[in-house]
Specification:
The protein is α+β, with helices and mostly antiparallel strands and 252 residues long. The chain is built from 6 helices and 19 strands. The chain starts with a strand and ends in a 5-residue tail after the last strand.
């Protein structure tokens, strides 16, 4: 009857270790969470607790309820066949300097058939990368191009990591299917607590699907925010919607 919510400074570079540590301590208690953002400024992010704004902080909340609930995640990207290997990186700052032995931004742009000068938040929103771990696909999003031509990521990165290009499904359709499943399993929805990637929002704006996706969030009675990253159980993910769906009281 208990789930956990994790809120964390989105510029801390600590989400992976925090999510893993929390999941180890929590055991069978499922966890969902989000990394705080500041729009697209990437300057300073805060979490709030007991009326205080905390930079460089995190909040872990345990929630008990007699209502049925499900901690869930959904993403509309799957791994493609094209592979790129990180050949030079600075792990503490999630910075990739080289891909396949070439300057990272230049090579990423070349693979996608554009000039490096055209790389930006809207392009990154619709062209993330995917890593395959244990048979599962996990999205890795690019935050920005740095002045030196390197790429800053929203998640942990390391040399030797194999990145795959990502194939997108329809975001609104994927969300609608997810909601329908949660409604069935929960006997309807009282609310959904959602942590939704800010790049998903940019994608909706670019593809003019914001109204359709907003209507789906209203249908799910959603509360939440646009994040710099998402946590699901013990894993930090990108370009993903994570959350908790709270259903109606069981008649039993």
């Amino acid at each position: 009857n208990t789930f956990a919510l994790l809120l964390v400074d989105g510029l801390s570079f600590a989400e992976e270790s925090l999510a893993s540590m929390a999941a180890t301590v929590l055991g069978d208690i499922p966890l969902a969470g989000g990394s705080a953002g500041d729009g697209l400024a990437f300057g300073c992010t805060h979490v709030f607790a007991d009326g205080e704004a905390l930079p460089h902080g995190a909040v872990l909340l345990l929630v008990q309820t007699e209502l049925p609930f499900e901690v869930f995640k959904t993403q509309h990207f799957a791994a493609g066949e094209r592979r790129m290997v990180v050949t030079a990186a600075h792990c503490p700052t999630r910075t990739v300097h080289e891909i396949d032995g070439r300057p990272a931004a230049t090579e990423f742009a070349r693979v996608h058939g554009i000039e490096a000068e055209l790389l930006g938040p809207e392009f990154f929103a619709t062209h993330p990368l995917v890593v395959r771990v244990g048979g599962g696909d996990y999205v890795r999003s690019i935050q920005r191009t740095n002045p030196d031509g390197s790429l800053a990521f929203f998640c942990a990165i390391e040399e030797g990591l194999v990145l795959r290009d990502a194939h997108a499904r329809d975001l609104a359709q994927d969300l609608e299917l997810t909601l329908a499943r949660l409604e069935r399993s929960g006997g309807g929805l009282q609310t959904t607590i959602t942590f939704d990637r800010i790049l998903r929002r940019l994608e909706c704006e670019r593809l003019d699907t914001t109204a359709a996706v907003s209507a789906l969030f209203e249908r799910g009675r959603s509360i939440g925010f646009s994040t710099y990253g998402e946590q699901f159980r013990g894993i930090h993910v990108n370009q993903t919607l994570t959350g908790v769906a709270i259903g109606n009281r069981s008649e039993a």
